[in-house]
Each structure stands twice: as structure tokens, then as C-alpha cells.
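User: My collaborator sent over this chain with a note saying "see what the structure looks like." That's all I know about it. Can you take a look?
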Amino acid sequence: MDENTVYIVQFWVDPDEGHKVIDWLKRTHLADVAGQPGFLWARMFELEQTDEDGWPAYMMTYGLESREALDAYFESDAPRRYARERSDLDLDRLIRANRFFGKVARRIGS
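Assistant: Without extra context I'll predict from the sequence alone. Here is the result:
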């Protein structure tokens, strides 16, 4: 099924300890989010750009069935659970993030 909504998280991690964030994302978080109702796929990218402080940049993109599925995700316990996990693992001080979402305006190819 083709996605009609995308959710994008662009983030930067501390250059010294950011590997802890990346490990958590790869080990559990990315797959867990992708497994939420209405999510169709997930991708994580390591970007070549850094922020003004030299923090390396990454991006995660998720394809969803609908905007309603994304709204249901935002209202679910999952985002609060992820916030608790980040806090328990002391990751919040190691990451800066921006979140975007919208509809797919055009699709070319597979």
C-alpha cells in the first residue's frame, strides 16, 4: 500500500556521545515506531551536514496510510513512552530534533 502521509524527524546528535542515541534508535526505536498502527515503512539516513556546533545530522522518514493514523499515533502512549525511554537513558541532552509531517504531493517510481 502506498503512503499518503509522511512523518520526518531531522535530528542532530552530540559528536562525543551521540552514538548512544543512534544505538537506541537502531536497536529499538525505529522498528517500534514503524510497527505502530498505520505506519507502512521507516528509513533512517545519516546526513553529510552538521549543525553550527558541529553536531552530525540524521533524518528518519516514515510512510503512513493517512493523516488520521499519524494523529492517532501522536495521541497514543507511544510518544510518551519514547520520551520516558530517552529520559531514563539520559539521551535528551545528546539530541536536538525537528519534526515535520504532511501529505505526499507526488510520487515517481517505486
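A starting point for your reply to your collaborator: The first strand starts at residue 5 and ends at 13.
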